[in-house]
User: Which sequence fits this backbone?
């Protein structure tokens, strides 16, 4: 992948039982803040229809520099600290690479 191609990232969040509402609140704030960051092309929040209460974010960044800046930014740092006690496991981050078919 070249430096100037967009970057897609999927992240899965699994709350501890009973913490779904708090995780939703924290992620909604993260999404809102992230959408204003330079290079953010889209940032969406979903709930799994297979595993209720499991949240998924799908992000698209203009380039690797924008995605890395986001990852090091305050919004992610604050969200990570706020989420930590409410998650069963650490978030599972999936940077995506296109597959030619």
Assistant:
């Amino acid at each position: 992948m070249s430096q100037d191609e967009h970057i897609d990232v999927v992240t899965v969040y699994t709350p501890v039982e009973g913490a779904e509402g708090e995780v939703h609140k924290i992620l909604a704030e993260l999404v809102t803040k992230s959408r204003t960051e330079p290079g953010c092309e889209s940032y969406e929040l979903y709930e799994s229809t297979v595993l209720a209460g499991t949240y998924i974010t799908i992000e698209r960044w203009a380039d690797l520099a924008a995605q890395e800046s986001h990852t090091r930014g305050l919004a992610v740092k604050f969200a990570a600290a706020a989420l930590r006690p409410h998650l069963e496991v650490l978030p599972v981050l999936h940077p995506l690479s296109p597959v030619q078919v």
